[in-house]
Write a structure and sequence with these properties.
alpha+beta, seven-stranded mixed β-sheet, 23% helix, globular
Length: 118
């Protein structure tokens, strides 16, 4: 499924296909303990212990989440993956919504890759 991966580094954000299972989400965020933040029509995944392990702040992912209505005063750290709800099965993840991608593209560089994170 289509995901938006936003690295904490200065590397470009990327739209990439991932399977959406736990292993592919962990690989996309660089390992660690998965934390999900549910924004209703979007979800993001990050490393729950990123602050404790000293990961770099993710300014772009934080700004996008805040622009989408996230209200936490603490920013995100480490690499972040945005997905969306699955319309057919609410218990499963779905592709990142077009609205999230469109907003991200107005805020920072986003490129598309065809390879998958396994």
């Amino acid at each position: 499924m289509r995901a938006l991966l936003i690295p904490a580094s200065d590397d470009d954000a990327v739209v990439r296909d991932i399977t959406g299972d736990l292993d592919s989400l962990k690989a996309a965020i660089g390992g660690g303990h998965i934390e999900i933040i549910n924004g209703g029509d979007w979800h993001l995944y990050c490393d729950e212990e990123g602050t404790i392990t000293g990961q770099k702040p993710n300014v772009r992912a934080s700004a996008l989440a805040w622009e989408l209505g996230w209200t936490s005063p603490q920013g995100l750290v480490g690499d972040v993956v945005f997905l969306g709800p699955n319309e057919d099965d609410p218990a499963e993840e779905g592709p990142v919504p077009d609205e999230v991608l469109d907003l991200a593209r107005t805020m920072f560089e986003v490129r598309t890759e065809l390879r998958s994170v396994e």
